[in-house]
Amino acid sequence: MLWTSLLAFTAVAEAAPWYKRQGSTTMLRFGCAQVVIDRLDPLVNPGQAPSPHVHQIVGGNAFNTSMTTGDVSNGASCTTCAFADDFSNYWTANLYFKARNGTYKRVKQLGAAKQFNDDFSTKIDGGVLVYYVSAQPGKITAFKPGFRMLVGDPTRRTADPNMKRQNCFRCYSGPNFGGDTAAPCQGTNDTPGLPSSPCKGGIRSNIHFPTCWDGKNLDSPDHKSHVTYPTSGPATFLSLGGNCPSTHPVRIPQLMYEVVWDTTPFNNKADWPVDGSQPFYFSYGDNTGYGQHADYVFGWKGDALQKGMDASGCMGAKCKDMKTQTIENAKKCAVKPVVKEDHDGWIDHLPGMEMPM
């Protein structure tokens, strides 16, 4: 079904799932397998190894401790993402389960629901789903070489009402979406913090980035000030919102990360804290979820991303002249961990938070 505008889609939102929106909106939606799990953060803690907490990183193999400037696509030879020209790096903090005895275990990730039925949704084995949205009318300018940004605040422990549609969690009531097809951060099972009860199908994280750029700076000291949200505030998914402010006049793609955490092995409440409180912690010590954040370093080769943003109606992991690769080839791409830590066993403390060096 072809929708001619976002307004038309809104009028019939109950008749079709959000992921079937097409027409004047281009939505590149693709998976990226993990390239490495490591306690590094070249954006916030450049040159520091180890960094304060553990991240899961996907994308190009140029990821390293000090990739602070320049075009990362020049230093990468492979990528874990569906589009062969995307050498960007995308990363988020890891999630851990804290058992009643005080030990922790990393929560692994799932792919997307089977409705999408593509290898880069269902076979990434613990990666991240990435979205780039170009909502017409109006020119959408792809990010430039050297561009990077950060969204979210790892120190936050209370809800930010202004970000309820930009940073959320969905409690799946069963496998394969649990029957919930609402747009990200707009469903009845979406919450600004981590769910307080066991989720039969796991927990999904959605993180939206700002959509307005100052047009000059590829980065800023806080990695946030060079970008912002429209004058009307953060936009809902698949809508870039109102006009950009005069300080940030350039409309950039709506970038979103989606991570499905496989919390199902930890749904036995007998293993949860005695008081029944929420037992999942991000690697920076947050069990509220309000500190959820994400990092981005642009690394598309040449004008590959701009082609996608200019192509009307592209949907999913393929788009006209944009080159793709096989999931088998993507999974061969990897970076050797710098910090040697146990990522799969039970551990006494969150790495970097309390664990001795």
Automatic annotation (TrEMBL):
It comes from the Eukaryota. The lineage of its organism: Eukaryota, Fungi, Dikarya, Ascomycota, Pezizomycotina. This is DUF1996 domain-containing protein. Residues 1-15 form the signal peptide. The keyword tRNA-binding does not apply. Keywords: Signal. Pfam families: DUF1996. It comes from Delitschia confertaspora ATCC 74209. Residues 41-300 form the DUF1996 domain. InterPro entries: DUF1996.
